Amino acid sequence: MKFALIDAEKTHHSVSDLARVLGVSREGYYAWRRRGGRSTRTADDQTLTTKITAVHEASRATYGAPRVRADLAAAGVHVSRKRVARLMRQAGLQGVHRRRRVSLTRSDRAAHLLPDLVKRDFTAPAPNKIWTADVTYVPTEQGWLYLAVVLDLYSRRIVGWSMSAEQKTPLVADALTMALRHRRPEPGVIHHSDQGTQYTSREFAKICRGQQVKRSVGSAGNCYDNAVTESFFATLECELLDRTTFVTHDQARAAIFDFIEGFYNRRRRHSTNGYLSPHEHETCYYEYDNAA
């Protein structure tokens, strides 16, 4: 660092002579001194690291460089992903990483009678057109707590969920009922799931018929046919479940509710949405639709 050399030798030579020999300006040296002896880049990096740390903490210590960069950009701070990644490494900050999820599906032989209306096309033209659904388990010291969700393919928002100590049809029926009650879709919304017995039961079929919901199922034992919901569960596991130990079912229920509604739906940036949260992505859709 040339300015640091000038600072070290100024007792033996004039600042003007040192600056001339080193090819820098005298004014630049004094500006460097006023900044406490730090280069502009170093000072900027320290300021940016403070902002990166705040974003990382607000993400519940889950964001990696791409989502941190998106959060900074939303606040008017535009930097490269590589720079964010470098500063995160230097600060000891890192995102969490997904692990492969174990399926709970118990297939029903009658499921082949239901069509696959999605066929791995995980896009939707608007909210409340295609929903996907699945069940996962949450370990607690009281035993398993099962979680069923309904996810909107347009925004990746969790629009319905239910938790129970039993993995039976009421678990998935309650999740669908919540989605229908809160979203009020037009008749014909597609509900896509795996071939689990809960989703192919007569009780669940009756609810779907009564609410004009079209049932759709993927092929047996193929997680790729319901990859979007599987992806949400992987996010839930690596960003919450793998980092927390629950003593009771009530503790797990509260934490999962907070994760879904307090973070995932409203704040967590989703790469499929152009790094907008599900809530922001839907808000943009409705604002554009109303303006058209």
TrEMBL record:
InterPro entries: HTH-like_dom (IPR025948), Integrase_cat-core (IPR001584), RNaseH-like_sf (IPR012337), RNaseH_sf (IPR036397), Transpos_IS3 (IPR048020), Transposase_IS3/IS150/IS904 (IPR050900). Residues 123-286 form the Integrase catalytic domain. It comes from the Bacteria. One of its GO terms (molecular function) is nucleic acid binding. One of its GO terms (biological process) is DNA integration. Gene3D superfamilies: Ribonuclease H-like superfamily/Ribonuclease H (3.30.420.10). PANTHER family: TRANSPOSASE INSF FOR INSERTION SEQUENCE IS3B-RELATED, TRANSPOSASE INSO FOR INSERTION SEQUENCE ELEMENT IS911B-RELATED. NCBIfam families: transpos_IS3. Involved in the transposition of the insertion sequence. This is Putative transposase.
